[in-house]
């Protein structure tokens, strides 16, 4: 089995209130110079052979379901187990 990871992040021009809140909390705790952008991570387990067609299916699913492509971007990568 192979694991495919889809990372979804707000686009740079989109405000990220959760990331801003975490950044502020880190600064109050003394962690200066850190800026957080908060996103989502999806781990997809693929049974059988991981083909280019299967990767294309996962990209399609990410675009249609996992990410709101108006305000988010996503990256698909393979993690060998």
Molecular structure report:
Pathway: Purine metabolism; IMP biosynthesis via de novo pathway; 5-amino-1-(5-phospho-D-ribosyl)imidazole from N(2)-formyl-N(1)-(5-phospho-D-ribosyl)glycinamide: step 1/2. Part of the FGAM synthase complex composed of 1 PurL, 1 PurQ and 2 PurS subunits. It is an enzyme of class 6 (ligase). This protein is an alpha+beta fold and 81 residues long. It has one domain: Phosphoribosylformylglycinamidine synthase subunit PurS (Mth169, Chain: A, 2-Layer Sandwich), CATH 3.30.1280. The protein is built from 2 helices and 3 strands, in the order βαβαβ. The chain has helices at residues 17-28, 52-66; strands spanning 2-10, 40-46, 72-79. A 3-stranded antiparallel β-sheet has the order 2-1-3, with helices on one face. The chain is elongated. The termini are close together. The model has no long low-confidence stretch (mean pLDDT 96).
């Amino acid at each position: 089995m192979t694991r495919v990871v889809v990372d979804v992040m707000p686009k740079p021009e989109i405000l990220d209130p959760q990331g801003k809140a975490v950044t502020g909390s880190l600064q109050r705790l003394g962690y200066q110079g850190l800026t957080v952008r908060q996103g989502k991570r999806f781990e997809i387990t693929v049974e059988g052979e991981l083909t280019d067609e299967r990767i294309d299916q996962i990209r399609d699913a990410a675009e249609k379901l996992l990410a709101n492509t108006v305000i988010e971007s996503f990256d698909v990568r393979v993690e060998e187990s």
